[in-house]
Fold each of these.
Amino acid sequence: MEENKELNARDISRISESNNYDENQIQVLEGLEAVRKRPGMYIGSTGEKGLHHLVYEIVDNAIDEALAGFCSEIKVNILPGDVIEVSDNGRGIPTGIHPTEGISAATVVFTVLHAGGKFGGGGYKVAGGLHGVGASVVNALSEWLELTVYDGENIHFQRFDRGNYTEDLKIIGQTDKTGSTIKFKADPLIFETTTVYNYDTLLRRLREQAFLNAGVKIVFSDLRDDSNIQSETLHYEGGIRQFVEHIHRVRGQSALFDDVIYFNGSQGDSFAEVAFQYNTDDKETIMSFANNIHTVDGGSHEDGFKNAIKKVLNNYGKKFGLIKDGSVFSGEDVREGLTAIISVKLTDCEFEGQTKGRLGNPEVRPLVDKIVTEKFMNYLEENPTVARMIFDKAVLAQKAREAAKRARDLTKRKSALESAQLPGKLADCSESGIENTEIYIVEGDSAGGSAKEGRDRRYQAILPLWGKMLNVEKARIDKVYGNEKLMPVVTALGTSIGEDFDITRLRYGKIIIMADADVDGSHIRTLLLTFFFRFMPQLIKEGHVYIAQPPLFKVYRGKQVRYAFSDEERDIYIKELEGENKLKVEVQRYKGLGEMDPEQLWETTMDPERRTMIKISLEDAAKADETFTILMGDNVGPRREFIEKNAQYAKDLDI
């Protein structure tokens, strides 16, 4: 392992074997057919996430140039008409004639799937872009795409329409600069839901990339509206250390001590860096990345980090006589209040799982483990005051865990003595098993009553919420046991929580949160999502959690009834029912679920044939958790900033 020295994205650019990046480095594996037929296979979906993924693919290629040490600035613009423009000052995509394809290498990159400089041709050793897939897939799924390449002498240009081209790459001028500019318009025939980009969504991803690649400058601008131009320069010489500070700042969390602890090291072509800091809360946040790709399900790099942290703190406690009577910290004890970023750069990433969100490279775990084990112990010994703060926090977490075990055991004994273990207000369904069953967690007894009457009793269970709302932002797991608001939910689901969680005991296939479309309802939804995210995340990970979508309006004339889910939909139905004679149309605004009779609730919100629901992903739940942290935390500044930013959307504010 190399000596401990400060490295950044440019320092580790040894990932490029040489400065020779030309047509000979472009390797071709297969053609582009079927991308337009099955776009979901390549970008995940044709909805909003897939739309934004197009931008990520092109930016990732520019980031790869930065990783290789040839690019220092990337510009990303949203132009009028939701056209995306990505420019970099790298070497420029090779323009020479490809040795086997007989056309420009740049044309090959944009028209042949799995063509790029990342397949052993010597262009890159480490790449975050998906193995050259990105450029061709973006081209295939765009209404049009324009490529401009600057090679230091000439300006090259080529236009594509839905992946095809009529003219070869041509020279349109001279230049002394190098780099590439890709401009494209997502195809509305593919992205039928929307082709409108969300500025905040793109900003979040681009900021993440700037943190992960210290020194790279990303300038992001939204130029769609001349009266409301937004622009941010994302440039972080501190890299992932500043990433940790950013997370604490936006969440309003107070650091336990001043330092952001940072270590890095390498072995062969593999490089790993970690940055972490404890805060005064009890929330654990660990984000891991492999070649700039967020590994949401963790993997070998995250496992190595977790093992090392636990091992070091237990060894430190034993060495200085702070751990007695054979008591040792668990992983949860030492990670309470920890915010950490783990980033590895590898020649070849092996991703696992259905979503490819877990890093599988076995050699990475010992690499990260060794770096953290050696350097964290040295850090603690050199910083005894900080070491004691971390140690004392782990002790408090350990005591809370033991208190939770006592509360859990008490709850189990109490349940064993009771004749009916399920919550008294649960209206269960007659069928069992999770194939077809679902439970509605409903806000309020009134709505619960309507839901019980309107449901299909064979497979739909209803659980009304009641009792005091628990602020899960402040609650350790020992406080959850016995809480009259949340324990009925835990008991009804059957899985238990925390370390006792067992997905095989889940009693319902769908867990549906049904609350009013107002601020109180939003609070209920956000709290429950935060609760599931923190104490039962596997429910979300395996796709069991949903949000019901009740209508806002009933629009009717005589026996003709329409249910509207937005102001715009309401206006459309009014015009439709008015007809040419402009007959009077009635509009009823639902202030709450309790205002609907059982039949209406069934028709609009519970009938599988007609209802609309949102399946919650881990990303959705993480956003809800972050929002809850900001709104319910101790720091006033981030809460005020959040409220001011979202005040204009207050009437629609949701998770």
Note: The longest helix spans residues 384-417.
Amino acid sequence: MSEQTYGSRAEAVELELFVHRFSAIAWQMGEALRRTALSVNVKERLDFSCALLDPEGELVVNAPHIPVHLGALGLCVRTVKDVLPLGPGDVVVTNHPGYGGSHLPDITVISPVFGGAAGDVEGKRPLLGYVASRAHHAEIGGSRPGSMPPGAGSLAEEGVVLEPQHLIRSGKPRWAEMRQRLSSGPYPSRAVEENLADLAAAVAANQRGIVALRTLAQQHGETTVLHYMNALKQQSENRVREALRGLGDGRFRATELLDDGSPLVVSLDLKDGSGVVDFAGSAPVHPGNLNATPAVVRSVVLYAFRLLLDRPLPLNEGLLRTVRLEIPEGILNPPFPEDARLAPAVVGGNVETSQRLVDALIKALGLAACSQGTMNNVLFGNDHFGYYETVCGGCGAGADFDGESAVHSHMTNTAITDPEVLEHRYPVRLERFSVREGSGGAGRHPGGDGVVRQFLFLEPVSLSVLSQHRVEAPYGAAGGRPGALGRQVVMRSSGEEQSLSGIDGCEIEPGDRLLLETPGGGGWGKVEIEDAE
């Protein structure tokens, strides 16, 4: 064995070790956040993400949390550090979609990590990177409890807007100022103490990441740590380039329609493993809340490219180095004027448009049939609380696999609240949660089934739902049949039934029920008539 071959193998082994070391940092952060958070949404549903970024603010590793969060964190950190100085002892927060945010309930907490010995002059300590946490706050204000109002037409209606600001500056906390921000504005938060508790948990999680990254640098050297951060991104770039070469040169194009008919269009023009991902032809700025942001679009593309790889790699921005994204102004790149009352609403863009955009990319790449393509967002509350959950459904089948039933897919990766916790903390009873048999599309490989979920409400609440695939069915592929549409019905205590549209809301009285049926996944491959019979 030559020295060069040995060196290459040693380098590969060392890189693999550092990938696990970096990933362990994000895992530790996530566990610290989960353990110390107060809200059901973070502690039970695990609706949060933690990541490690390099000194340029590019995503290096993540724990396997929420894909729609993770791909956006790099752009968020880079945008924030360009407008706000970040020094030792600083912690910055934002939820503003114009600064790499996704939607207002997702609050991002960013901390820089500086190396050097404890006695070094702070101004001369090298920057090792950043740690960031993004958690969904089930209540951050807005015109309806749960902070995802289905009828919102402006950002101001969706809750408290936090432009990038210091929560801690040079080690000095600013909790009083944050409390004031959360308690003010046209639609203040209904759960300020819970917000502050979860923010404190995110700060603690970041601190765990800071200590872990500094320790790693002390053990192996700062230059070595930075080298392997870049080496991981380079490895990811190489593997994506190889996968894109496997697709061949040419144009891959697909269109998906939102349930209201708004088109999402993606074109991939590839040549020799690189190219352009263009979203020209997608809808203009949406009048409702289905506007996404470039940060969310980056999350979608990063996730889809990761699906092309058959080797385990954490999501990182090396996966996007081989392509250029072109996102014209419109539903996927809306303008954000300073006045939030004039800025577009985005809360559904993060959770629903992101899922439908994955539908389009997977269709263009021919990877699988369509999954449920929605997060089935259910929100209810009153002046005292806001509850939020996303509900699982069916996955699309592929050329050599059946679709999974009753699971989250693609841009979401949360848990469901345990019935005991749900019924103890909130005025509701869970009467049914079961697989929706037969809702997956038929095919040589059938799509996965959705679920049925039914609530009984015990006190008056405002109910909101945000969903997709209530009009446009999840497509089948290679001759497979589409999955079943989702639906939601309010069953009044009087016996009357009220069907809700995919993005809708109503007032609930004690004794009323919500019946939710989530979509199935599309099937793959044509089923012969005799087989179907």
Note: The chain has two domains: 3-235, 368-533.
Amino acid sequence: MTDLLKVCNFSFSYDESEPPILHDITFSIEKGEKLLLLGPSGSGKSSLALCINGLFPRSIDGISTGDISLLGKNIDEYLPGEVNQYVGIVFQDPETQFCMLTVEDEIAFGLENINFPRVEMDERVEWAARLMGIENYLSANIATLSGGIKQKLALACVLAMKPKLIILDEPTALLDPVSTKDFANTIQLLQKELQFSLIVIEHKLDHWISFTDRCLVLSDSGEIMFDGHPRSCFQSHLKQLIELGISLPQTFLFKEQFLTSNIVPFTFEELIEILDEVPDIIEKLNTPKETIIEAKNISFSRKKNRIFQDININIPKGILTAIIGPNGAGKTTLSYLLSGLEKPTSGEVLLKNRNLTTFSKLELSKNIGYVFQNPEHQFITESVYSEVAFSLKMQGLDEKRVNEISEEVLASFRLKHVEQHHPFSLSQGQKRRLSVATMLVDEQSFIILDEPTYGQDANTTRELMNMIEKRLQSGVSALMITHDMELVDKYADYVFVLVDGEVIFQGTPYQLFSGHKENLEKARLQLPLKYEVLKQWKLRGERFANSIH
């Protein structure tokens, strides 16, 4: 095999007065090789991806030293946009890379930019759409598509260019559990068929780790900490990985928590093989009878499309409630109705028994906090420090107290070193932490968090959830939208399952995960690992019992 990509003594920073984000990076990728790129939030993974495809430092005022060469030619020697013929990137949020209105035009866009022969273009567009199973959406308006279809479209656009290297930058961060699994399986099949090289940047490792050839780990200072086989990485450097906040595969977390075996189980099958017994699952019972938000017979339509019809839900007071369901189910829209950001077409939403329509905007903002899925939607100041301090000043705290709380929050969320940076200059993971931090220092009695932990490493996820739990203990009520079932199992007290604008289940996580599988299948959900292990353990016991009769 020959090298497709070589990175040699490469360093990169956004400002020469600051330490480099990437420091003295050296590695290579062979043709057809599959690399898993790991590191804590803010370690420079996305910056490295953008340097590899030639966008950085060419398109920003960044500073780099060292060399990156592709197919034996230095990246700097390629014309602007030329590298995109060889390196394709699929980002966390696919909408950031769309330029056209329809699916067909979007797939064709890159081909048109390289003057691909018109007579062959339709065939190439259909080929890419067919590979991703979206051939029936070619004439569809992109704005009407679900998150899962948009992610498939983003990959189809990349595949249409037939690149030598594909970089996936947390491509499943906003996908439901089944779509996440389907996306990873699709990549595996396509890579086997088309033999492109692959770099996967992910925090959720379960569907990728047994498929990749190599593991490259960046430290929090942007240096290479490990380069080698994934199994060797997790077996030999476990303590360092945990300290860095690298998310472990769920199978390995389970093994670390409950088993003494020295085997590193990367797949569910490997985990089941080393089991001697399984732990009991204890139900959390923490559902108060009091309600903070009540939706009565609410219906909602947008542009004549009915999204909800006569929905009735009660959000319990003082606990964490989760709304889960497949992409496109209406979870975010429902949260807008519950927060007063949208008004129902009919029905009413009550906060503490008072209709939201009777609140002024100022009253609503004092009672309800909202952390948006896209953190940039809520930034209003010029620095990270000012963003955290803003609401504290609005509460009338004196300058000394504002400074004390701000410094404490910035340290907790690992943002102290970027406190004077503009919020828009942060990494995606840092932006998410800042958006949650700004809401958690407020004094609202009800907070809504739309995917609060996406793009976060294990340490930051734990810190974020601990901060939310502290607010709950002080009497705050919280509603969380998430696709992470392990998060729901560990932290949520109550859960609603939404499918096609209809609530098909409400109850405790235990009731959902130990109940009928039909609800999980309808909502494209997967069991948390310990429930799946218990299920398979019981099946194995039943098979054994049947075999001796």
Note: The radius of gyration is 24 Å.
